[in-house]
Amino acid sequence: MAQLDPRPDQKFRGRATIRDIADLAGVSIATVSRVLNDRPDVARETRESVLQVVREHGFSTNRGARGLSSGRTGLIGLTLPLVADAYFGPILSGAAEALHERDMRIVLAPTLHEHDREVSLLERLMRGTTDGAILMLPEESADELRTLQHQGFPFVVVDPRETPPDGIACVSAMHAAGAKEATEHLLALGHRRIGAIAGPSGWYATEERLIGFRSALAGAGMLLDPELVAYSDWRMPRGTEAAEQLLSLPHPPTAIFGFNDNVAIGALHAAQRRGLSVPDDLSIVGFDDTELTTIVTPHLTSVRQPLAELGRTGVSLLIRIIEKQRVDALRMELATKLVVRESTAPPRT
Amino acid sequence: MAQLDPRPDQKFRGRATIRDIADLAGVSIATVSRVLNDRPDVARETRESVLQVVREHGFSTNRGARGLSSGRTGLIGLTLPLVADAYFGPILSGAAEALHERDMRIVLAPTLHEHDREVSLLERLMRGTTDGAILMLPEESADELRTLQHQGFPFVVVDPRETPPDGIACVSAMHAAGAKEATEHLLALGHRRIGAIAGPSGWYATEERLIGFRSALAGAGMLLDPELVAYSDWRMPRGTEAAEQLLSLPHPPTAIFGFNDNVAIGALHAAQRRGLSVPDDLSIVGFDDTELTTIVTPHLTSVRQPLAELGRTGVSLLIRIIEKQRVDALRMELATKLVVRESTAPPRT
DNA sequence: CTGTTAGCGCTTTCAG
DNA sequence: CTGAAAGCGCTAACAG
Fold first, then answer.
1. Global confidence as pTM
2. Among A40, A94, A324, B57, which is disulfide-ready with A308 (CB 3.0 to 4.6 Å)?
3. CB contact under 8 A, B129 and A68
């Protein structure tokens, strides 16, 4: 079992360096470096004895120095709007894990949705601090992204806010397919009047999910009634408001499709406030399948986005770009899957 | 408004260095370095012209290199069990913000509760990669922590798992006071049989909150009935189980105090499952006051821990330690505050 | 006030 | 297979 060595290397001023290890092992620092980097061209015996000393002194290489000389820091910048969030959290977590497996780390750069801040963060990240970056839901325009790319900085966009620009590595979920599946589920239950609480108009996720929604409706021979779609800021309070609005319609929907879990839960609150029973009086389905779905009562039916996987995929794409390996697909879409829980049922007859 | 310079510095191989800036500005690199580091000993005029060039080329200093020569990387390691978590998320977020204000960043090191992993992470973090670390809810024993300290690595513990060891910088919330306030609230409502769902026995937070719980009871002339406290792993399912157990008692409680929001919500689920109305048949109060409290129905009464503040405080403590400034209090406890919502009411008569 | 110079710890040719 | 030596970009004395 790993343990902190209780006897620190007081022999050295501060921490041991590669030079100390070299001296102790009776080899040159070049050799130690080779061993540390798993180079094949080291005699088995030499390698062993170096590793021995390394272990004894709990030595581990100074990444800053390595970065300086090799150009690789082992650090990846990651910008994201919010860290404390049921949606971003798992993506971040997936990315961190994937990186950890490669012995790399994330440098966190929360933007708080401030575009200027994001830009300046990026500039700093580019400067020798990190090997590349993952931009989650970036505020940057396609043009800005392209500029960044021209500067030769490796990055990938996870969950693009706008339509993914050509030539830029992008990973997202299959928004349209997911929305279609959710809507078909409602349709199959017998719902004919289905309201939607979308995200902000113009967002990639919003538009794609709207396409899926519309397409499922069309599949059932129905047309989308524009009155039945309300837009939101993805957040719960606005979800409640939007649901109020939909439910106040002269001919209100019997089911509501929230384009994320937050607004779906907001709708749930609206229903509860009106004394409507979910799912008997109103069916609700969400999107994202965050942990919030099983916290509310009834548990929320939701379209699962593979969030952690989104992060992991972003990482592996990025690594390939950094290492200048061939990437066949710059654009990746991960499959979604409807998770049926308790918030959906046939409409009251 | 900040913008990415659409015209990259193709003049330099890769990115501009301090040397390029020096040449362009017609000064020495030392002067550029001084300007970059806001040193006072630079002529106003010189400073201006250097800054001009810096801006023109969107130059920003290579942190790795700075770290190497100055010993300060501007990076702080942060270990935590989980990043995607309603409790840790806000702390992390607060820490990131506080660091951002100082133009420093977080290097993320999620431990996934694996002790070995945490130890090895720490060893790496120590090696020139970061200037110090924040350990959230560390798995390390007091001894290991002390060893780390003897090695001269600056760190602070946020939310200690065990009783905070002497001489180690630690910030936590006032567990006992918070628990006392929550219990007194229940008592004031008229509850006389109050169950508790604690965390794991032995944890600092558990034991302290138990002290507060007991002390409030004592204040009302009551003794803690051991039958009324169930232990948990802090998680929702276990909270449900624990509540089932308490509610199955021959003489069941009329109120349950969950030692965090997760288990309180678990208890809420148990109540709902039994057809008990909350708060009429059963009052529930949680602890932490995460965002989950307002997602469930009824909204959960909970003891607010200033989570973001915990992170911020940890950062400022750490910075002072790194800069070898005097720190008066190595041990800081942040006040909690009961937030009354809908899940508590007088017991049924 | 400004320039010169010596490294920080490591990787990487280039020679053996 | 191994070592010597040249930096990576920057900061920090030390001189002027």
1. 0.93
2. A94
3. no
